[in-house]
Design brief:
single chain; alpha/beta; Rossmann fold; 2 domains; binds uridine-5'-diphosphate
């Protein structure tokens, strides 16, 4: 094996959507904290989002840097500065970003990655072509899936066995075959591209084929959370796998790191903390649907009524239409809503981007109404907070099952329909459902107390996992040793 002080270079290639960039940057930093020399390939406006944290790590002595490539936005007709899928909501503009990255991928494959002389490539699942790059360069590729092993396994089973074809209606329950737990779902909760094969299905299959030829997968999860499914994953995909999370807990330890993570918030952290400090412990519900979901006005109105009628304190992050993407659209908040909650000091509305880690970790925050995006879910878990689950798209309905049935740290709001965010919603979740879900979670029934207790216990386990000797920390130590051994074998 290579001596520990021999340089080991990892080249990191994120997918540029907030929910993908954030965890892979945390992972890149984690590898640097464990002795690797890390180069992150990025574009200028994407780098702005995380460069501060890289600079701080660099100044602290870690070997980590960004390599900026010019984004060919003008070539595909995009306005300057639009370089991230989360900046836009229309399919048309997302397709342009995709086209621009296709142009860039060739350059990254042929010139940029080889110039970084990697000993390992760490890349998003969607950069399937990096498996070939790694093979050509004779180095391992580690795949980063922005998911958990349970959701991944459920999704894989549906793609393979199509259990939804055995039921007569969209809402009849079926069991997902071959999983360690009995998980029942409906056709209405499945991604449309599993039910009706399309170009996206074929693309996913390509990703998975490349994944199977990769060295292994790392996910932002930990053994005590979904270790059973990690073992299951190794059996069904046939490659190595590691849970190395929660990565955010491992690298964003101070207030600056927590408040600056992701995009810049338009609320001052001090102001926010002052408001939270003025509230009783566990009395505030945090409401956020991640970086992509933008609900139409009728749904926004139901959420607003549900929250207002519940009488519970809340912080609600609202994302209106993306910059250069149609501008100021109607939000749908009921008349006088903001004024009323402000006057009663009941709630805070944060527009576009909130410092989520700071809010979740605050003792006054007692629950999280989440869309079950995996980053948000594991951040809620890390903070020991129980959740009201409101899955919308992607793999979120599978993660809901993990949170509510396997881990039992959440309660469903009752969302039934997977929503392709470019089309009309098939259901509007009513104010009554919202009120019932949040009222139950923030209440004091025996069941709610049990959920809260389990969430606290899981939060403690998450914190232990990333400490010295914890499962994720140990996984990372042994993974680094293994990668160094692979490098040595290659040079022997
Ligand atoms: N996030 C944040 N502030 C916001 C919205 C999102 O910090 O106002 C972060 C959140 O902490 C998480 C990520 O953005 O790390 C969203 O990822 P997730 O997987 O939850 O959802 P997605 O955006 O991919 O749907």
């Amino acid at each position: 094996m290579l001596p520990e002080n021999t340089e080991f270079r990892i080249t990191v290639l994120p997918l540029f959507a907030s929910g993908h960039v954030i965890p892979i940057i945390d992972m890149a930093r984690l590898f640097a904290h464990h002795g690797a020399t890390v180069t992150i390939i990025t574009t200028e406006s994407n780098a702005c989002v995380f460069q501060n944290s890289i600079d701080r790590d660099f100044e602290a002595g870690f070997k980590i840097q960004t390599h900026i490539v010019t984004f060919p936005g003008a070539e595909v007709g995009l306005a300057p500065g639009i370089e991230n899928y989360s900046d836009v909501s229309s399919r048309h503009l997302q397709a342009k970003i995709y086209q621009a990255f296709l142009i860039l991928d060739k350059l990254i494959d042929q010139e940029i990655i080889p110039a970084t002389q990697p000993d390992c490539i760490l890349s998003d699942l969607s950069h399937s072509w990096t498996t070939d790059t790694a093979e050509r360069l004779g180095v391992p590729r580690l795949v980063v899936s922005v998911s958990n092993f349970m959701a991944y396994s459920a999704e894989h089973s549906v793609m393979q066995h199509h259990p939804e074809q055995k039921v007569a209606s969209d809402t009849e329950a079926f069991e997902i075959p071959g999983l360690p737990h009995r998980i029942q779902m409906t056709k209405s909760q499945q991604p449309e591209f599993f039910i009706q094969r399309n170009a996206f299905t074929a693309m996913l299959e390509r990703y998975k084929e490349a994944e199977r030829r990769s060295y292994g997968t790392v996910m932002n999860t930990f053994y005590e959370l979904d270790g059973v499914y990690l073992e299951h994953y190794k059996k069904i995909i046939g490659i190595k796998a590691w849970g190395i999370g929660p990565v955010s807990l491992a690298v964003n330890k101070d207030m600056k790191g927590k408040s600056e993570r992701g995009n810049k918030s338009n609320v001052e952290s001090e102001e926010l903390l002052e408001w939270l400090n003025s509230k009783e412990p566990n009395s505030v519900l945090y409401v956020s649907f991640g970086s992509m979901v933008r609900f139409p006005p009728p749904q926004m109105a139901e959420i607003a009524h549900g929250l207002e009628d519940s009488g519970i304190n809340f912080i609600w992050v609202i994302r209106n239409k993306g910059k250069n993407d149609g501008g100021e659209e109607e939000e749908g908040l009921p008349e006088g809503f903001e004024e009323r909650i402000k006057n009663k000091n009941r709630g805070l509305i944060i527009r576009i981007w909130a410092p989520q880690l700071l809010i979740l970790e605050h003792p006054s925050t007692g629950g999280f109404l989440t869309h079950c995006g995996w980053n948000s879910s594991i951040e809620g878990i890390s903070a020991g907070k129980p959740m009201v689950t409101w899955p919308v798209s992607s793999e979120q309905f599978y993660t809901e099952k993990l949170l509510t049935e396997v881990l039992q740290v959440g309660v469903p709001v009752g969302a039934q329909w997977w929503w392709n965010m470019n089309e009309e919603m098939k259901e509007i979740v009513s104010r009554e459902k919202v009120g019932k879900g949040v009222g139950f979670l923030m209440g004091a029934t025996k069941e709610a107390v049990a959920i809260r207790k389990r969430a606290e216990q899981l939060g403690a386990a998450a914190n232990r996992a990333v400490q010295s000797g914890g499962s994720s920390e140990q996984n990372l130590v042994s993974l680094m040793k293994e990668l160094r051994a692979v490098k040595f074998k290659g040079k022997a």
